[in-house]
User: What shape does this take?
Amino acid sequence: MAMRTRLTWLQEKCLQNYFGEKRFCLLYKASVQKFCKQDLFWKCWDNGPTMVVLYSENCVVGAYLQEGFQKREMSITLFALQETEVSACLIGPYLPALLFYDRQAFDCIPCFYIVLDEKNVTISSEICEKLGLPPECSPMDILDCETFRCEEFLDEKKRRDIAVIQNNLLQTLRTYKPYGDLVPQARILLLGPTGAGKSSFVNSVKSVFRGSITHQALVGCDVNGVSDKFRTYPVTYGSDGFPLPFVLCDSMGLSQKAGLHVDDIDFILKGHIPDRYQFNSMKPITSNHPNYIHDSLLKDKIHCVVFVFDINSVEQLSYGLVTKIKRIRRTLIRCGVLHVALLTHADSLDLITKGDLIDIYSCKPLKLKLEAVHRDFGFAFSDILVVSNYVSEWHLDPVKDRLILLALRQILNTANDFLEDLPLDNQVSERTYSQVLRKNKKQENSSYSNN
Amino acid sequence: MEVTTRLTWIQERVLGKLLGNTSLTLLYKSGAHGLHALDMIQRCSHQGSTMTVFHLKQDVVGIFMLEHFPVLHSKKPSTCVLFAFKENTSTGTSALFLNAQVEINTTELKFFSSDDMWLTVNLKKNKLHLSGEVIKELELNLKCFSEYLECEIFRVDGVKNDPGFIKKMLTAKQHRRRFLSALRAYRPSGDLVSEVRILLVGPVGSGKSSFFNSVKSAFYGHFTRQAVMGSDETSITKQYRTYSVKNGEGGKTLPFILCDSMGLDEREEAGLCLDDILHILKGFVPDRYQFDPCKPIKPRHLAYNTSPPLKDRIHCVAYVLNINSVNSLSDKMVAKLKRIQRDVIDCGIGQVVLLTNVDNCDEVLDDNFTNMTESTTSQSQVKKVQNMLTIPVSNILMVSNYTSEQSMHPIRDILIFAALRQMLRAADDSLEDLPLENRQDQLMAPSAASHASKK
Assistant: This one.
């Protein structure tokens, strides 16, 4: 039989969150080892914060020892878990070993004691009441007993380790180059409902590369959206501002009735819309506009589109807006523009905590969201990315940085896939054009130095 | 002392992935729990497979034991894997598979066989001894006798209780390299064409575009999405696309082309037109041709009654089916596939079936990654496909397309490479099977033709 806990993902999460974001490491399982308290003690003594969980037919009860199994008296938190409700009460101080009835000394904790070899636990009526258990439940037959060491989810050491990984990722992304040098910068367009987090994502990416929090793109909570212009934001590395070869293009939010005009999207994709163009929900841009970019080149076009959604509201978007987004997606596919979806506010999902961001794709609530987004919009699972934007923080956090960089890496790789997929003659002509541009720039620079 | 491991987060993850999709749970830490053999045994016995890790001054060395941790004064055999983190990287590991005898007494923990004393640990003095062979195999820069700072023992959850499987996981990377070199060295049979064309055809959503992306990802070493994927009311792929694959990012183009088509739809006037398929097979359809579900292409060449050259024709067809829907294919879809097959056979083109969304990648191939296992080939879906399309079992291939960067794994790569290899072999078979006169025509390259005319 395997050493696997009986707790469901949900039950484990409820207990984890109740006891302060702890990770549970299974040390002892009666049904696999032996229903013998000596075995339990051998495996669990001196392990720091420890939790004993007892499974009966109808509910889960247990004891949480903040100081673990040691030879001294301490407070013990007894708890009961029914569905997703945790009720607890503090008793003590007692010797933790006396949670288990001691036959030699005829000793135990009077209000709560486990007789492991007889597979039952006795709970006093006072404790039953405090835990919300029916008084007739005691003595309770137990099917299994598990003991866990409780570790900090996100301790200093883990934070340091993640910081190392985040830094490696950052350095790798600094070396990014658009495929075949076809364009000087990859242009990434952010589209999505109002308030989804597009401008926040721009700020978050810029912050991670700069090394400090920045709020260049305006964000806010206006129901009509805050962004109303087309903005291209370059991303620079470090405080010296070394420019990186990609830009993020922020747009007006999509909404059912107002928001970004669908025809404007076509103009953006083709590279006709200038930086700081003021969108008009009623009228798309026309070629008469003074700053309209005629004869746009590949370097002006969009190389990858990111559909940004707030993870909390993505399933509640109006039918009209969902249809609009699906139509936009079909247009992109027809024009050969590659795209991905980005879900923001990942850590605000019910039951998800900051520590979960480390392994977010294995969390059940997130898997359910991915299924919903796949079902409602048709994005492939591989094309749905997840982040948590910087909103109110003063300092960067390696855990958030890592997710942001992982998403950005996927986005930049997709831009390269797009460039690589261009018909070869387009690629050749673009490359020649870029080379000519570079040669001209060199000549310009040398003529400056000559003067 | 806090009971947390000295391993970094990445090292823990790497060790977890060493033998499959496993995870580690710390059971014993010498600094917190004491140096006695009993301390170890009490905590680690009856837990299942374990990994004992020794933190040396600059290296990390450890041993995995498939069997339960030994009890005091007992000797037992166990499948073991000795491993070490390669110097200066936290992600590279070297590993050595052993069938060892394990023994623990009050002073020592030993792993040995009749030939060698692989690893001997002096528990009281925090010293360990590695045999010269181990040091050589693991490429360690250590003396035989080394002091260690701490010993940690983890339970390994999720590992398969099968020594052959353990060995398989350890050799996966090597075998992947073998497949990769073979593919890189491939040349179409008799150099009749410079690139072999493989057509992917199948129901909407079966994984054709995803397969091309997975092939490219396997060669590039990271997840790519050049072909658009996803789902919609109709096929996402609406154009005929011929994709070349490069030998890695910035590498040479390989001599095969994967041709992606619109999905087959059960409904009338939807999905790929069956007449279009014949035109594709014969080579009339150009790259980026936009399919019309209601109207097949009007090929220009047809009017001239000549057929496109061999290099433009399809040399192998892969019927791509989602393994989870094989047993519930509708009669209409089966009829479509059979009709396509008739055209394929008439044109003498090679055929394979590609089953996607396979769950247990680790078990599809045998321990040496040479052939498919008996349990794989006896699956109901394989039998159903055999009956439906009479294709030899060796050409019914299984893959698991990549669904994210996180899902990249050497064994998935191997399945993808193996499928590609079978497709190339089927293509070669069809090229070799061409009537001799047809072959001669193709070999008459312009220079040869002009040479012949000069005579």
